[in-house]
Amino acid sequence: MEFLDVLFLIVAVLILILTMMQSGKSDGASGTIMGGNRGNYIRIKERGIEKVLSNITLWLGVAFFILAILINSPKF
């Protein structure tokens, strides 16, 4: 395995771990269908550790796609 492949794998695992650590933002479709009224259409602001986890996950996602493009690009 090359360096980019190993880095790609590490980023993918970190994204999975951080995604599992985050709490749900709303009830989703089931809450809407069943009549749950918890303000699904109100913007929920993240604070503290939730905001940090969300930002890290966002940037790891960007890195994931950039690495995917670099790994699959033709070698010159």
Structure description:
The chain has three helices and no strands. The chain starts with a helix and ends with a helix. With 76 residues, it is an all-alpha fold. The chain is elongated. The chain has one domain.
List the helices and strands and how they pair.
Blueprint: H1 3-21, H2 28-33, H3 49-72
Number of helices: 3
Radius of gyration using CA atoms only: 17 Å
* Low-pLDDT residue spans: none
How far is the first residue's CA from the last residue's CA?
A: 19 Å
Q: Tell me the total number of β-strands.
A: 0
Oligomer: single chain
Largest sheet: none
Structural class label: mainly alpha
Question: Could you say how many structural domains there are in total?
Answer: 1
What is the mean pLDDT?
A: 82
Helicity level? 55-70%
Indicate the proportion of strand residues: under 5%
Shape: elongated
Order of helices and strands: HHH
Note the main attributes of this structure.
single chain; 76 residues; mainly alpha; 3 helices; elongated
Task: Give a quick summary of the entry.
By secondary structure, the protein is mainly alpha-helical. It has helices at 3-21, 28-33, 49-72.
